Amino acid sequence: MTASAQKASTPPSIWSLAWPTTIANLLLASVGMVQIVLAADFGSEAASAVAVSQRVFFVLQAALFGLATGVSALVARNIGANDHLKAGQATQSAMLLGFMVSMFMGVVCYLFAPFITDWFGLEGDTRQLAISLIRWVCIFNPIYSLNIVLTTTMRASGDAMNPLLLAVISGVGNGLGCYAFSHGSFGLPNMGAEGLAVGGIVGSVLSLLMYATLWRLGKLKVPYPSLSNLRVKTNKLIRIGLPSAIEQSLMQVGFLVYMVAIASYGNDVLAAYGLGINFLTLIIFVSLGFASSSAVIVGQYMGRGEPQLAKTFGWRGWRMCLTFMVIAAIGFELFGGHLARAVTDEVQVQHYMELFLTIVALAMPLIATDFALGGAIRGAGETMYPLKISIVSLILVRFILPFVFVEFSLAVKWMFCLTALDFGIKAIFMTLYFRSGKWQQKEL
Fold this sequence. Notes:
By secondary structure, the chain is mainly α. It has helices at 3-7, 14-40, 44-80, 84-111, 113-118, 124-156, 161-183, 195-199, 202-216, 230-263, 267-303, 307-343, 347-362, 364-379, 384-407, 412-436. The longest helix is centred in the N-terminal third of the chain and has 37 residues, at 44-80.
C-alpha cells in the first residue's frame, strides 16, 4: 500500500452511500413517472408520444452515462490514493467534454426528430406531439448532462448527501414544473402535454446552479482544481469512458429499436409498455443505488492498492442489490394489476401493463446481478469487457429477435420476455468475469 493511500480516509460503507443515492435516484426517476401519468390524462395517444420522447431522452443521455462511468472510476481511484487535485481535474474535464458531446447530440437529434418519430408509426397529432417533445428534450440536453457529471463525481468521492439535497430540489422542481406547464397552474401558460417536457427542466436548472456554485466555492469534497490539466485528464476520460459511452448508447438504441417493434402491436401496447417501463425504471434506479455505491467503493479500494477488499465489497454490493430486487419482484407479482389500474382507466392498457410487470418481475435477480457485478467491474476501470457482452446481447435480443417475433406474429408476452433474456445473458457473463478477478489487474 502506498504512503498516500495510508493517509487517505477509509472508504465509506455501501449502505452509507446507497441509501442517499437510492432516494436521489427515486426522486429523479419519479419525474418520468409524473410525466407519463399526467400524459395519460390526455389519452393513450399522448402517453405514447411521451413514452417515445422519454426513450429518445435516454438515448441522448446514454453517452453521458458512459462518460460518468469514466469520471467515477478516475475520481474514486484518486480519492482512494488521497490525490484530491487529480479528482478535481477529472471532474472539470468531464464537465467540458460532457457539455460538448451533449450539445452535438442535441443538435443532431433536433434536426432528425421527425425521422426518429416516424420509426414508431405515429400519425397525425400524436406524431406532431412526439416531435415537439423530442425537440424540447434536445434543447435541454446540456443541462441534464452537467447535472449527471457533477452528481456522479460527488458520489465517487464518497459524498452522497450533497447529491441527495440537489436531487430533492431537482425532483420536486421538475415534478411541479410538469404539472404547472401542462395544466397552466401558478399563472404559467397552459401547454398541455407539451408542457410536460418544458416543466421537466425547472428543478434541474436550479440544482445545476446551486451545485456549480458550491463546487466553485470549494464546499464539496472534490475541489475545484487550481491547475486544470485538461488534455491529460480528457485523454484518460475518453480511454476509460468511451467503451461505456458506446455500450450505453448502443443499449439505448437497442431499446429504441425494441420500442419500434413494440409499437407494431398498437398504441395500447405501446402505452402499457411506456407506463410499465417507468415503474421498472423506479426499481432499477433503486438497485443502481446499491450498484453504483459498491462500484465507488471498489474503485477507492483499488486506488488504495487493496484489490481483494475491492472484490469483497463487490460481492457485498451484489447481495444487497439482489435482496432488494427479489422483494421488488414479489411486489410486482402481487400488486401489478393494482398499479396498472391506478395509472390508467383503459382496460386494454391495464391488461398489457400487468402482463409486462409480471414478466419483468421474473427477471429481477438477473437485473440485480448485471447491475451490481457489472457496476463493480466498471468501477475498477474495466469498461471493454461489459461493452463486448452488451454488443452480443444487443444484436441478438434487441435487433434480431423482436422483428423475428413480429414477422411470425408471436403474442406480445413473448416480446416482453426478451427483457429477461437480455439481462440473463449479461448476468451470466458478468458473474463469470467478476469471479475470475481479471478486472483487478486494470491500470488507469
